[in-house]
Amino acid sequence: MWGSANTFEATLRLKITDAAGRTAANIYATATSGTGTRGTFDVTFPYKATRSGAGTLTAYWDSPEDGRAVTEDTVPLTVRR
Fold this sequence. Notes:
81 residues, mainly beta, 4-stranded antiparallel β-sheet, 6 strands, globular
């Protein structure tokens, strides 16, 4: 997947979940810049799904203060086994 982000220190998380909410992948990605400047990223990541079907891709960054998800964005997708 590829995209752009403006996150703390250019680091973001990408998580794929299936329709039941089970996590198939959850990785860190690094954009070309961050902390006030939008940067691009392009990553390929493996995932394990128990079945094909509807799913969600969630992109967010972890707060350096308390670790909670910040500026979360989700898009629907189809998970393939």
